[in-house]
From TrEMBL:
Gene Ontology cellular component list: molybdopterin adenylyltransferase complex
Name of this chain's protein: Molybdopterin synthase sulfur carrier subunit
SUPFAM superfamilies tied to this protein: MoaD/ThiS (SSF54285)
Transmembrane segments: none
Length: 77
């Protein structure tokens, strides 16, 4: 099981802020591909992934118990 977290517009598109996903082993890219199939309304063009609160490359391993956050672009002023 991994724990997924969605922020901003992604949270609205998913209809939830977080969920658990049955998971054995894979990479951040595998999680991203799952999300693209599950939530086609997401705009993934600039989404970054964080695993256990650290930004990662798509080849980063994701293991059961990990927390994966989908972080859309943010702007500030």
């Amino acid at each position: 099981m991994i724990h997924l977290h969605y922020f901003a517009g992604l949270k609205e598109a998913a209809g939830k802020a977080e969920e658990d996903l049955s998971w054995q082993d894979g990479t951040a890219d595998d999680v991203l591909q799952w999300a693209k199939q599950t939530y086609p309304a997401f705009d993934f063009t600039a989404v970054q992934l964080a695993v256990n609160e650290e930004y990662v490359h798509l080849d980063e391993p994701v293991k059961p118990g990990d927390h994966v956050a989908f972080i859309p672009p943010v702007s500030g002023g």
